[in-house]
Write a structure and sequence with these properties.
Helices cover about 10% and strands about 45% of the residues. By secondary structure, it is mainly beta. The strands form three sheets. Strands 1, 7, 8, 9, 10, 11, 12, 13, 14 and 15 form a ten-stranded antiparallel beta sheet that branches. A three-stranded antiparallel beta sheet has the order 5-4-6, with no helix packed on it. It is elongated. Bound molecules: zinc ion (2 copies). The site of one zinc ion (ZN) has 8 residues, from loops.
């Protein structure tokens, strides 16, 4: 529990490194300030003298409520005005502070925060640069957001295009494999196949692992206590000591055992959508029609499958820019060339957002 001598600096004459226990500046005689912040230089000497150790551990100095003189804890009367130390005269003690190892102030101009939250941290000066950067950033984001807001513009319909397709389905035999056969299956063969894997316990194996075992505790210096009287004392904490030990344990070992079942390979008739039987019609006019599939008529192994239709228009802005838009069939049908529609674009940026009501669901 080493005790060291702290230091303070005289704000009146600027003398630095005054011995902590001194209550007056040895240079100008000014009293040690009431809000003195003691610090501990790296080369602070360890106190061995018994009287000084007793003084260091007696407690924080106190300030006389009558004459502001600073007195040692051992003094029961003020050595400035001889009034007794008591609550009634508003005598105040200097406060103890506890610092973490890397928080101990080493000079009076670098006070650092204390371990205890009830001791207020030193006031930070505002950083004007940070506010300038934040304001600039806010302005930048604001311009981005406002500039991207939509405004209404007029566009005219200039061109139509459409595409319609019909998928013809061909009735044909396809090969399948499954765990059961559907109705209508033919050319059925059966064979054995792995359906799943089962975990089967093979046994236990002895393994070793390293574990941490707590074998005791140790005390170590974890900070410094500013005693409020010019001295600093080591703060001790305890921490557990661990040792690595080898430990054996049993681990279950499993085998993955395949489970076989009867599987079937068979043929079955299905309606198949071949790419070559996807029949399309398209045009750049306003007369949409379905593609001609008359070549399949009378063929019982073909039938109609899914239909798909897409409709687009090209609109022109007053400025001249054109945009292609996908629209719904009924809306497309209702339009005529040269018709005016409402669309949206960004206030500042060159972004076109599309028609107000593209009518895609109609
Ligand atoms: Zn001084
Ligand atoms: Zn006094």
């Amino acid at each position: 529990m080493a005790v060291r001598v702290g230091r303070w600096d005289c704000p009146a004459c600027g003398t630095k490194g005054i011995y902590g226990p001194e209550t007056r500046c040895p240079n100008c005689g000014s009293p040690r300030p009431q809000d003195v912040r003691f610090y501990l230089p790296d080369d602070a000497e360890i106190v061995t003298d018994e009287d000084k150790l007793r003084e260091a551990r007696a407690g924080a100095d106190w300030i006389c409520g009558h004459c502001r003189t600073q007195n040692k804890a051992s003094e029961s009367r003020c050595h400035g005005c001889d009034n007794p130390r008591d609550e009634a005269s508003e005598d105040a003690g200097l406060s103890e502070r506890t610092y973490g190892m890397d928080e101990v102030p080493t000079d009076s101009f670098a006070p650092k925060r204390t371990l205890h939250p009830d001791m207020a941290p030193p006031q930070r000066k505002g950083k004007p640069m940070r506010w300038v950067i934040l304001a600039g950033l806010a302005l930048f984001v604001g311009v981005l957001v406002l500039g991207a807001l939509p405004r209404r513009i007029s566009v005219t319909v200039e061109q139509f295009s459409w595409e319609r397709q019909i998928q013809m389905l061909h009735h044909e035999a396809v090969s399948r494999e499954d765990w059961h056969t559907p109705s209508g299956a033919f050319d059925v063969e059966s064979f054995q196949a792995i359906r799943e894997y089962k975990q089967v316990l093979r046994g236990y194996e002895t393994r070793t692992r390293t574990v941490q075992v707590k074998v005791g505790e140790e005390r170590y210096v974890c900070g410094q206590i500013d005693k409020g009287n010019g001295y600093f004392e080591d703060k001790y904490c305890t921490r557990p000591i661990y040792e690595n030990r080898e430990e054996t344990y049993q681990e279950a070992v499993y085998d993955q055992v395949p489970v076989y079942a009867t599987k079937y390979r068979f043929k079955v008739m299905e309606w198949v959508p071949h790419e070559r039987h996807l029949i399309k019609a398209q045009g750049k006019d306003h007369e949409a029609r379905w593609p001609d599939v008359s070549q399949y008529e009378g063929q019982s192994d073909f039938r109609r499958g899914a239909r798909k239709e897409t409709y687009t228009i090209v609109v022109r802005e007053e400025g001249g820019a054109t945009h292609q838009e996908a629209v719904g069939p009924k809306f497309w049908e209702s339009l005529s060339k040269g018709q005016t529609l409402q669309a949206k674009r960004a206030w500042l940026f060159n972004n076109y957002y599309g028609l107000e009501e593209p009518g895609k669901d109609q």
